[in-house]
Design a protein that fits this description.
Keywords: ATP-binding, Nucleotide-binding, Transport
Number of helices: 9
Structural class: alpha/beta
Strand order of the largest sheet: 6-7-8-3-9-10
Low-confidence stretches: none
Mean pLDDT: 91
CATH topology of the domain at 9-92 and 168-250: Rossmann fold
Oligomer: single chain
Family: Belongs to the ABC transporter superfamily.
Domain ABC transporter: 9-249
Protein name: ABC transporter ATP-binding protein
CATH architecture of the domain at 9-92 and 168-250: 3-Layer(aba) Sandwich
GO molecular function: ATP binding
Radius of gyration: 18 Å
């Protein structure tokens, strides 16, 4: 991100603790410019998901601020949060629990449009058809229930739902970790195509450095609730400065020569 750009979404010295427990986030400052892709990596328990919840406005920081387009996010303002929800959408880890089994695929994709008061019935139906095509699913998928689809297909449905209000940023929490290896690449390629064709930014939370290298130009490393290193993904993967980043790289399985 250049100095001339106002971040679309940022945290400013954010600390967060659950009740009286020790903080799981400590003075975290991170920013995403419009259209930028950032990978947030770290071991289990580093605070990645907690930071994602703070960025999504689902959890208020104990101290510090979340900034949306340079202004402090006001969780008390319904109008402010509608604007935020339209611009920033999540994709969660488990495609089997993130879709309501009682709702058809079409109903799931339409839900954010209804909650954000976007469009009428006809325009929403057209948007569902457009999105199913965008994620390579047949039009008749709209009338079917999640149980009829594989894990990879369900994750594509979840991505379609996130795209419904035409967001500017996707916050994705381990979006392919619950999928079989054979279908992970298809979802990764979908994210790559969406970024290329629609200019949507992404914050990707992952422990998988291979996926981060495929999707993110910049990377931030979280250790015990603190950002310990940040920079271009290629540099951090080839010449990291921090010993924790080097340990993460050393733990990546490598194929035998």
């Amino acid at each position: 991100m250049t100095d001339a750009q106002t971040p679309l979404l940022a945290t400013e010295d954010v600390t967060f603790a659950y009740g009286r427990d020790a903080p799981v986030l400590q003075g975290v400052s991170v920013a995403l410019a419009p259209g930028e892709s950032l990978g947030l990596v770290g071991e289990s328990g580093a605070g990645k998901t907690s930071l994602l919840r703070v960025l999504l406005g689902l959890t208020a920081p104990t101290s510090g601020r979340v900034l949306f387009e340079g202004r402090a996010l006001d969780r008390r303002s319904a109008a402010s949060m509608r604007e935020f929800r339209r611009a920033v959408q999540p994709v969660y880890q488990d495609p089997f629990s993130s879709l309501d089994p009682r709702m058809t695929v079409g109903e799931s994709i339409v839900e954010p449009l209804q909650s954000l008061r976007l469009g009428d019935r006809a325009s929403r139906a057209a948007r569902v058809a457009e999105l199913l095509t965008a994620v390579d699913l047949p039009a008749d998928a709209a009338e079917r229930y999640p149980e009829a689809f594989s894990g990879g297909q369900r994750q594509r449905i979840a991505i379609a739902r996130a795209l419904a209000p035409r967001p500017r940023l996707i916050l994705a929490d381990e979006p392919v970790s619950a999928l079989d290896t054979s279908v992970r690449m298809h979802v990764i390629e979908l994210f790559q195509r969406l970024a290329r064709e629609q200019g949507i930014g992404m914050l990707l939370v992952s422990h998988d450095l291979t996926i981060v290298s495929a999707l993110c130009r910049r990377m931030a490393v979280l250790e015990s609730g603190r950002i310990v290193e940040e920079g271009p993904t290629e540099r951090l993967l080839t010449a990291p400065d921090h010993p924790y980043t080097r340990r993460l790289l050393a733990s990546v399985p490598r194929l035998p020569a």
